[in-house]
Structure formats: C-alpha cells, structure tokens
Amino acid sequence: MKSLFRYFFDFILRHRIHFIGWLCFIAYEVITVGLIQRFVSFGHYAAYYVFNILLFYVHAHIVLPAAKMKTKMAFWRFPLFTVLELAVYIPTLTFTVLMLNKYNIVAIDHVEWKMNYLTSIGYRGIYFIMFSTGYFFVMNYLNQRRLAAILEKQSLMTIIEKQQIEKDLVTSRHAHLKAQINPHFLFNTLNFIYTSTRKKAPEAAEAIMTLSDIMRYAIDEMSTDNMSGLEEEIEHVEQLIRLHQIKAGNELNIQLSFENNRPNYRIIPFVLITLVENIFKHGDLTIQTDPATIDIFATKGQIIIKTQNRINLIREHTSHHIGLDNIKKRLDTAYGEKARISAGITNQHYVVDLTIESDLD
C-alpha cells in the first residue's frame, strides 16, 4: 500500500502541470456555468470530465500519431479517425450517464435530455478534440525545439573538442620546441662525440649517430605540413629499433616487416613510432621463440599497421592507454572515420590493429 501511494504521489508530481491546468479549467467552467445557469451534483461533473479528459489524451497520444499528421495520409486519416473517435465517445458516455442516472448518481431532466443531449455531447466532444489537437501541435513544436537544442549542443561540443585537440597539439609542439637545445649546437656536439668515440667504442659511436638521426628527424618534422612519408616513418622506426638493440646487446627479439606497393603514401608523423615505443616499454622481447612483430602493409587505398608483443609481466611502466588515447585523438582529427584503431589482449599478447584509408601524395 505504501509503495502504491508513493507511485501515485510520484505520478502526480511528474505531471503536476497537467493536474493544475485541468483543475483551473474545471473550476472556471463549473463556476461560470453554475452562476449563469445552475450547479449540479459532483457525480454529474465527475462523469463528464473523466470522459472528456480521457478523450483529450486519447486523441493527442493515439489518434493523431496514428493519423500521421506530418504526411499526406493525414488528409483522409484525420477526419476518418475523428469520426470513429466520436462514434465511440458519444454512445459510451451516453450509456454511462444513463447507468449513473439509474442509480441516482447523476440526475437527468429527461425532457431536456431528449432534446439537447446528443447535440450537447457531440459539441463537447468536438470542443475537446480541437483542444487536444492544439495541445498535440504545441507539444510537437516544443519537442522539436528541445531536440534541435540538444543536437546543436552536441555539434557545438564536437567543434569545441576538435578545436581543443588542435590547440593541445599546437601547444605540445611549442613546448617540444622550447625544450630543445639549439639544434645546431646539439648536432655539432653529437658529431664531435661520435668522431671521438668511433675508434675506441664503435657501438657507442653508432648509438650516438643513430640518436642524432632520430632527433634530427623529430625536429625536422615539427616544421612540416603535419604529414610525413610512410617510408621515412619506417626508417625512423628502424633507427629506434637499432638504438634499443645496441643498448640491449642485440638480444631483443623484434621483427619489422614492410610491404609497400604505394611508395608515395603520407601519414601524420609519430603514430608508428608511438606504437613501437609501447612495445619497448611494455613488451617482453627476450623470448626467442615469441618475437614482437610490426607488420606494415601499404596497398591501394589503405595503410594497415599491426603490432603484437608478449606482455611483460614485470611492469616497469604504466599501461599503453595514454599513448593510444593520444593516437586516437590525432587520427580522429586528421582522418575522421577514415582511420580505425583497435587494441586488446589475446593469449598474453597485446595486439594493435590500425587501418587508414589513404590517398597518394
């Protein structure tokens, strides 16, 4: 009983505007008609207004949607359904009033009833149908305005998010440039160290030259048109792999394969390098029978990149998610729906699949 009362209270609270509106309307009609003509019993008012209010909502929420008011079918459906609606409303209300009169709940003047009742009840039915039709169109208008506002807000949020991504990218580039030592001084110093160590420590000299090439590529890409040649990106990855191999004494088990049928493809820079850096950070590259793989296919209209590595159970770094989230944002900004990336764990391996619908340069 308590839950039923709570449900009824919540229903009234949700639709309080309807209840207040009907109370005001009924009070206005009862007082006006009562002062001009006469007041009748509560049962009389209850019977008529229950049916009229029911007719109002049935017409607005069932008949008009079924008539498809925004289509050409409304020209014949609306009058037909309205006539059928009145054909049900008038006999049903008449029968109900007669039954209530039989049990003295509603008092009817039989002479007046025979002369005016059907005309009166038909007029009231048409009155509430017109009232309901106006309500239907007003509510549709308000719903469309609300939907348009939601869509406009979503569109605005998408534009703001895209602008924020572009702003963050520009800010990152500026921060990167500010963090650089004067490039000429840096590369001259690295060349000096390379020359000094080439004979005494050839592996260290090779690592220095590889690092120099990697840094030169990264700095040069900052001044480009935000696109890079796919082959240049792969050369950059090969240098990174070589640097890690020197550091690990050539004991890392990682394989890079590249099939290129379209040598002029261009992509946004540092996407591939980020995927490879994740392999070094989070992968176990020490198992000779289970190498990490980087497979790149450049076919007509597509660039497909797939990386796979066994997960390093001894975690020294955080998860892949930050790097992948940044890649997803950059891909969405540059390619939109033309780029698709997925990542997941399969049989203790972390697998990333990236497909870019691309055009020739």
What distance separates the N and C termini? Answer: 74 Å
**Discrete helix count:** 10
Strand order of the largest sheet: 2-4-5-7-6
* Rg, alpha carbons: 39 Å
Q: How many strands in all?
A: 7
Q: What oligomeric arrangement do these chains adopt?
A: single chain
Shape: rod-shaped
Q: What is the arithmetic mean of pLDDT?
A: 78
Measured as a percent range, the helix fraction is: 55-70%
Provide the number of structural domains.
Answer: 2
Helix and strand topology:
Elements: H1 2-14, H2 16-36, H3 42-67, H4 74-102, H5 110-179, H6 183-197, H7 202-221, E1 228-229, H8 230-247, E2 254-260, E3 266-267, H9 271-282, E4 292-299, E5 302-310, H10 321-335, E6 339-346, E7 349-357
Parallel strand pairs: 2-4
Antiparallel strand pairs: 1-3, 4-5, 5-7, 6-7
Helix pairs in contact: 3-4, 3-5, 4-5, 6-7, 7-8, 8-9
Overview of the structural elements:
- It is a single chain.
- The protein has helices at residues 2-14, 16-36, 42-67, 74-102, 110-179, 183-197, 202-221, 230-247, 271-282, 321-335; strands at 228-229, 254-260, 266-267, 292-299, 302-310, 339-346, 349-357.
- By secondary structure, it is an alpha+beta fold.
- A 5-stranded mixed β-sheet has the order 2-4-5-7-6, with helices on one face.
- Helix 3 packs across helix 5 (110-179), helix 6 runs antiparallel to helix 7 and helix 8 (230-247) packs parallel to helix 9 (271-282).
- It starts with a helix and ends with a strand.
